[in-house]
Amino acid sequence: MPFYLKDSEVVSQLDGVRSVLIVPCRFCPAASLAVRRRTAYLEPFRRLLKTKAYESSIDALKRRLEERGIETAVFRSRWLHQFVACMWSSRRREHLARRAATYDAAIVLGCDAMAETVRESVKTTGCRVIRGMEIEGLMNVLPRLRFPLELSLELHGVTPMETRRPPEIDRGRSRLRGASTASLAILL
């Protein structure tokens, strides 16, 4: 059940920014765009593990920024275990921090958890984090496999997400503060 994401307007948030690192997650945003455009999610024989609709969207964003004179690069993930950005290893996060240190801003293409992953990873670099997508809800999808090994997702509904402030996490003692029993059950 991936998040259903929509693009946010980022260009207006880039006043004074000379360089941007686009940091994409390859799971929820790719699934969302494939569903919205009614195209294949995965075509392993043609694109391995890349989604054509999502790659086109990243390329279009990169071109728009470069047309405005902003130096732009994409933080690529090449291995399968790096595709879901909210679950990156500490080593991957350190790699992002080193890379982002040379940019004025990072545009996050992913969910709230990914945005927090990027924010925590680059907090000592001076790189500003800009959310490039917003969550609309959780997708209820039905996978469809077509010949020759093309995976598409058929949208059956979107469950809206309730927005509320998450409980504070005391990382030193691994305790949650300010969380109700119901929210603790959801977290566990």
Number of H/I helices: 6
Describe the strand arrangement of the main beta sheet, using strand numbers: 3-2-4-5
Which spans have pLDDT < 50 for at least 5 consecutive residues? 172-188
Question: Helicity, in percent?
Answer: 25-40%
- Kindly give the count of domains: 1
End-to-end separation in angstroms reads 17 Å
Biggest sheet features: 4 strands, parallel
Oligomer category: single chain
Query: Could you say what the CATH topology is called?
Result: Rossmann fold
Shape: globular
Number of strands: 9
Describe the structure.
With 188 residues, the protein is α/β, with parallel strands linked by helices. The chain has one domain (3-160): Rossmann fold (3-Layer(aba) Sandwich). The protein has helices spanning 28-37, 44-47, 52-67, 90-100, 112-122, 181-187; strands spanning 3-7, 19-24, 71-74, 105-109, 128-131, 133-146, 150-160, 168-170, 175-177. The strands form 3 sheets. Strands 3-2-4-5 form a 4-stranded parallel β-sheet, sandwiched between helices. The chain has a 3-stranded antiparallel β-sheet with strand order 1-6-7. β4 (105-109), α5 and β5 form a beta-alpha-beta unit. α1 packs across α3. The protein is globular, with a radius of gyration of 18 Å. The protein starts with a strand and ends with a helix. Residues 172-188 have low confidence and may be disordered.
Question: What's the quick description here?
Answer:
This protein has about 190 residues and is of the alpha/beta class. The protein has helices spanning about 30-35, 45, 50-65, 90-100, 110-120, 180-185, and strands at about 5, 20-25, 70-75, 105-110, 130, 135-145, 150-160, 170, 175.
